[in-house]
Specification:
By secondary structure, this protein is an alpha/beta fold. The protein is 45% helix and 18% strand. It has one domain: Alpha/Beta hydrolase fold, catalytic domain (Rossmann fold, 3-Layer(aba) Sandwich), CATH 3.40.50.1820. A hairpin with a 2-residue loop joins β1 and β2. The two termini are 27 Å apart. Keywords: Hydrolase. This is Alpha/beta hydrolase. GO terms for molecular function: hydrolase activity.
Amino acid sequence: MSTATVNGITIGYDDQGAGDDVLVLVHGHPFDRTMWHPQVEHFVSAGWRVIAADLRGYGETTVVPGTTPLHVFASDIAGLLDHLGVERFVLGGLSMGGQIVLECARTFPGRLRGLVLADTFAQAETEQGRRTRNDMADRLLREGMSGYATEVRWKMVAPHNQAVGEFVARLMHDAPPEGAAAALRGRAERPDYTEILSTIAVPTLVIVGSEDEYTPVGDAEYMSSRVPGSTLVVVDGAAHMPNLERPEVFNEAVEELLAQA
């Protein structure tokens, strides 16, 4: 693990492999960069330099209480890559990470060679959704992560995938409540990225688990139909974490994207 001081915080990250072909992976909520282990291992072996960082408020990166908007996460990613001397890269994210990827596509599209949008959606939050996210943020600060992690475990991962479920549960239990709450409040106020989709001019993979209740296949179809030339892959039997539940299928889809980037 390495660290860098960016935007006034310390970011924990892994930077493995070498060369000009760079894949950057953005984790979801409430996880950390270790959720990408199967992808880091696979794509480093395939000759890519792979960078995975803990987002602000998660893992080994500084926790900043309050509200963390998506544009702050995107600025942290850009700052880390500036620190590492990386100008252009393929960028992938899952769930909240995918929304951060869309914010990056909005703010610095010229740096992107390709996109992976996994189990995410582009629309702005609904009024009910804003209330739900803010209520959950209050709950996490009040109770900690354990109750939430237990409740959502089998929505994150399909129930037949016990080993992955245990790993994901540990990630959620270990997440800092203040960081998770700040991200929830930021996501409650996120913009609608629908208009951004038609402007994306790089190879794009939209991938989703067939059993995902948080971001159903319809959300993936909505994005893919609006991103010119994008590829849609539905991972059969996976829920919200297909990169962990069926890594061989997920990695094969990403490989096809990287061949175009």
